[in-house]
């Protein structure tokens, strides 16, 4: 008899050509019939309507087994919990059951252990377990690139909106609308929806000044049927717009944003019409009033300075060091002086002297509040690069601050870049220009772009040379990525008639001390490093600078086109145009909201105009 059953089963399987899938778990399938003929229980299948449900909500399970004949009915055991999320199970038919959730359980992830329970009843169950979640929160939508975009991304025709969980939404045009200062004639022309992404296609034109674009979505739900009704997503649309004129046109200045929100421009070289400032180097400072949209007088620095550096200390004060200038305005000379601006008292106070004069140097504020001063160029001809590295110990009283000599770089340099790596506990110093003097005359020096990378360890207070090699460059950019790596891009590789832009970007890993090639810039730029602004979640925009081209000698143009880069798409791409093609100006980065202001600079003559890159 057993043999007869066995051969009947084989014949049945062959004749029906049973494959994988639901046939295996169908109670009327040949396989179940075969198992029954063999004296085995059929497989009990359970299919749940959802794996996410609201507190006190309902989900359904369909099955091929009649649990109404059992005294205990359908059991869905959950182990290892104090509060059972399942309130009751109600049979709606022999094969369909309603599962009502306990409203007092408002969140959590749970597992129904089917195999362990039903093995005691000699039943084979599929699936052996089922995971579900109690979810009381509606879905969260955000722009793929965060809360900000460049205006050109609206003009390109579409935006991607991403969800933190699967959504249930029809995606009709009637369910999405636009409003806000950036809207202008912009409309949504089509919607392409998927479980985790909504792509909006646009027609019309946004406001050329940018602003806020609010996208409203109606009746977007998650799988647990949570919904906000109308979900409003405000997006900051960044654009270049004309700013007020400076009171004193300038180049080679420094801009900072204070902790109290005030924005300040310091020093620089004056336009020739402002030669009442003596040698042209400025101690003049101005505040930008973002409400009145104008510049107002700020207290003058103690020293006139150009080609200097300034950093904001951990306590909000501004520390300024070195540069070219003087105290009384009678001559230009290299400076060793430092000074500190206190925004509370609105005063400048002289600080300690550095050991050597320097300009085109760089400074970095360390985690303990001290300031690392690296390299630079001497102010005297023949021009020689500076190798010394000094540490300024910051105190509450500038008069009690001290300067500690750390050592000399392996390659003296100026016009370099440097950035603190929190992950490595080191300041990484990239490239720059090295100038070696070979004679007494003013032109007896040889400038060279550097490929070397040097490292200052904040714990051991020592300098070392990296084994990684940079593309030779100076007047370039660095940008710290969220993953701890460092993006290096731009600059030029030499001076005078053979000057060439460096298009290739690189990425340096400070933990492994390795460097790799990255994408190309669209434009070779130098002296534009002050025009780099963050916006959105992980984006930067690069504006201004000089593009060098060598055609029958050294030629260059200032650049009006801008380009962006983000960690999301990992490439440079064309974005909006700045209002002016300029270089050698300065900027104020709006750290609180993103974007910033480009100040002064030159296109032939020194400029007094400004422009903002913002959504404000």
TrEMBL record:
User: Repeat: present as a keyword of the record?
Assistant: yes
Q: Which residues form the signal peptide?
A: none
A Pfam family it matches: Kelch_1
Reading the lineage from the top rank, the first entry is Bacteria
Q: Name the UniProt key words of this record, in alphabetical order.
A: Kelch repeat, Repeat
Q: This chain belongs to which protein, by name? A: Kelch repeat-containing protein
What species is given as this protein's source?
Leptospira bandrabouensis
């Amino acid at each position: 008899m057993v043999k007869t059953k066995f051969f009947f089963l084989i014949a049945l399987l062959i004749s029906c050509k049973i494959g994988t899938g639901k046939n295996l778990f169908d109670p009327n399938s040949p396989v179940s019939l075969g198992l029954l003929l063999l004296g085995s229980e059929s497989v009990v299948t359970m299919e749940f309507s959802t794996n996410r449900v609201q507190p006190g909500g309902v989900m359904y399970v369909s099955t091929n087994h009649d649990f109404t004949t059992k005294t205990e009915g359908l059991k869905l055991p959950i182990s290892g919990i104090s509060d059972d999320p399942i309130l009751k199970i109600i049979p709606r038919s022999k094969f369909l059951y309603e599962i009502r959730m306990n409203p007092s359980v408002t969140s959590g992830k749970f597992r129904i252990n089917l195999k362990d329970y039903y093995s005691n009843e000699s039943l084979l169950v599929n699936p052996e377990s089922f995971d579900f979640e109690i979810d009381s929160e509606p879905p969260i939508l955000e722009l793929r690139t965060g809360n900000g975009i460049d205006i050109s991304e609206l003009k390109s025709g579409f935006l991607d909106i991403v969800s933190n969980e699967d959504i249930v939404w029809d995606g009709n045009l009637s369910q999405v609308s636009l409003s806000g200062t950036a809207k202008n004639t912009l409309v949504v022309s089509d919607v392409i929806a998927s479980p985790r992404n909504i792509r909006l296609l646009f027609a019309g034109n946004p406001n050329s000044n940018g602003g806020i674009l609010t996208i409203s979505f109606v009746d977007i739900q998650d799988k647990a049927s949570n919904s906000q009704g109308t979900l409003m997503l405000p997006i900051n649309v960044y654009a270049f717009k004309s700013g007020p004129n400076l009171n004193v046109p300038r180049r080679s200045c420094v801009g900072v944003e204070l902790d109290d929100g005030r924005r300040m421009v310091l020093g620089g070289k004056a336009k020739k019409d402002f030669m009442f400032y003596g040698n042209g180097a400025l101690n003049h400072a101005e505040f930008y009033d973002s409400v009145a949209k104008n510049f107002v007088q700020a207290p003058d620095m103690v020293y006139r300075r150009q080609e200097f550096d300034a950093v904001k200390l951990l306590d909000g004060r501004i520390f300024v060091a070195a540069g070219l200038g003087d105290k009384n305005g009678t001559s230009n000379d290299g400076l060793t002086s430092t000074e500190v601006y206190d925004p509370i008292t609105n005063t400048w106070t002289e600080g300690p002297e550095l050991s050597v004069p320097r300009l085109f140097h760089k400074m970095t504020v360390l985690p303990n509040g001290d300031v690392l001063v690296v390299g630079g160029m001497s102010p005297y001809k023949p021009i020689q690069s500076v190798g010394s590295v000094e540490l300024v110990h910051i105190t509450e009283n500038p008069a009690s601050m001290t300067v500690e000599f750390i050592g000399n770089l392996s390659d003296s340099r100026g016009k370099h870049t440097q950035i603190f790596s929190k992950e490595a506990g080191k300041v990484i110093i990239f490239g720059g220009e090295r100038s070696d003097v070979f004679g007494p005359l003013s032109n007896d020096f040889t400038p060279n772009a550097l490929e070397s990378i040097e490292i200052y360890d904040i714990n051991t207070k020592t300098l070392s040379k990296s084994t990684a090699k940079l593309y030779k460059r100076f007047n370039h950019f660095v940008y710290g990525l969220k993953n701890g790596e460092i993006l290096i891009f731009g600059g030029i590789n030499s001076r005078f008639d053979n000057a060439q832009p460096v298009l290739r970007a690189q990425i340096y890993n400070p933990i492994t001390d390795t460097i790799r090639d990255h994408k190309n810039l669209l434009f070779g730029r130098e002296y534009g490093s002050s025009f780099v602004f963050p916006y959105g979640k992980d984006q930067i925009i690069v504006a201004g600078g000089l593009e060098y081209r060598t055609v029958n000698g050294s030629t260059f143009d200032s650049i009006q086109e801008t380009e962006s880069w983000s960690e999301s798409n990992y490439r440079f791409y064309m974005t909006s145009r700045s209002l002016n093609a300029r270089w050698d100006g300065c900027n104020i980065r709006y750290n609180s909201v993103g974007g910033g202001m480009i100040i002064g600079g030159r296109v032939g003559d020194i400029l007094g105009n400004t422009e903002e890159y913002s959504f404000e």
